[in-house]
Design goal:
six-stranded antiparallel β-sheet, 6 strands
Length: 107
């Protein structure tokens, strides 16, 4: 099931402090961009994740953020470069935007 307009609006509100914010629908979810750089995804099941590279990986781990992994039948588990947003940031636009801006400095 695809995300609702209300869910997409919530993501835009959470990241309201991020400049040049756009979204693009993909696979029932959305990619979230700043200036054309993808920094977050929201899956169709509602999970909101930030992309991580470089020093942000250690930062996410320090915050206790869970890395997105998946496993196809008969294959080993694959870790993707996205971490699930902490619950505290899902209702706090300042915290969410701060994390997003910090992530963008490493992308």
């Amino acid at each position: 099931m695809a995300l609702t307009d209300e869910e997409i609006d919530h993501v835009l509100d959470l990241f309201s402090g991020v400049p040049d914010l756009t979204t693009r629908k993909m696979f029932g979810g959305i990619g979230v961009y700043s200036g054309g750089t993808i920094f977050a995804v929201m899956m169709r099941d509602g999970r909101l994740m930030l992309k991580g590279q470089g020093d942000m990986i250690d930062r996410y781990d320090a915050l206790g953020m869970e890395r997105w992994t998946y496993q196809r039948p008969g294959k080993s588990e694959t870790a993707m470069p996205y971490w699930i947003m902490p619950d505290s940031a899902l209702e706090d636009a300042e915290e969410a935007s701060n994390l997003a801006r910090e992530a963008l400095t490493h992308l």
